Amino acid sequence: MYEDFYNLSEKPFTLLPDPGFLYMSDKHRMAFSLLEYGLMNHAGFTVISGDIGAGKTTLIRHLLDNMDREHTVGLISNTHQSFCELLHWILLAFNLEHADMNKVQMYQKFIEFIIDEYAHNRRTVLIVDEAQNMSAETLEELRMLSNVNADKDQALQVVLVGQNELRDTLQRPDLVQFAQRISVDYHLKPLSDEETANYIRHRLRVVGGRANIFSDAACKAVHLYSNGVPRLINLLCDTALVYGFAEEKYQIDANLVTQVAKEKQQGGIFPTFHAAQDDDFPAEVPLAAEDIEQIKPGPASDSVPALDSAADTQPPQELPPSVLQSAPTSTEAITAAASVAAEPEATHQDTPHEPQKSEGELYWEQQATRATPKKKRFLFSIFARR
To answer: Among 54, 127, 148, 336, which residue carries the largest CB count within 10 Å?
Structure first.
């Protein structure tokens, strides 16, 4: 929608996790380093927690893209309160047959799989996303599952990724044994003011856009209303680009971001962290003309020609219905009509049986003959919309 207007190859602020857009802030870099450290050092349990939309799932996708062949990885995103239901998803994640199996059989099936992988010098890694949905009882049974590990070797490594509630659950007194098994843990916090601006500019650069499409004050406004949560940043920025496109603004300023936040707040769904006010930010200096030219897309292709003057955009005079019904609907038809009209008039002997042309056909041949190349393209643009 707005990609061509801002000269972007694709939308830069989608809500779906995409490792190609991953911005490695200091916080995300630390979280990823600890994930790698946990895998390399055979940590039994690794825990990554953070607010909703903090970028946890994107980090996991990036981790999966960089895993080596020494690990056999299973990812679960659908967690359940019951460990029996969780076992179904675990076996499914590793492509293990489990039809008509009870809990004991599924448990044994997975243990045999872990041992077999270990015998082939491969470590099994189970990644559980949205782990905050698991009950304390399910977590405890997951701990018992890790007892397959022996001595210094970790045949099974578990990575738990979840929201803040996961930390609260793991701090319960009845999960002390589980907490003591956690070798690596990290809480992913929201982005700072400066990190938010860098995050916005990073995503714009990924899609070939100019970093100054969002002004400095606009970036501050995005941070104020999103509290630095990446998913909320994406939502605000994407909507701001839609508004900017509608208003033909080549730079998003703080006032436009405030307008977006106010309308989101009025809907009562968007969880902004600050009530949007018109006077939150001072007036900004308009974007320089040379900067606007850099943001604008290049010249239009020949397939969609530009109209140079007002005279070329004047619609034809009111025509009879018979003429309109005969109007050509493609550039090929217009060109063909022009070539036919330009040919020397045939003699009676050359075309003795040529059918008589209708009033409309004669009119369009005449128009195509007289038209300049620009007008021919205009005629096509008019009748292609019929």
So the answer is: 54
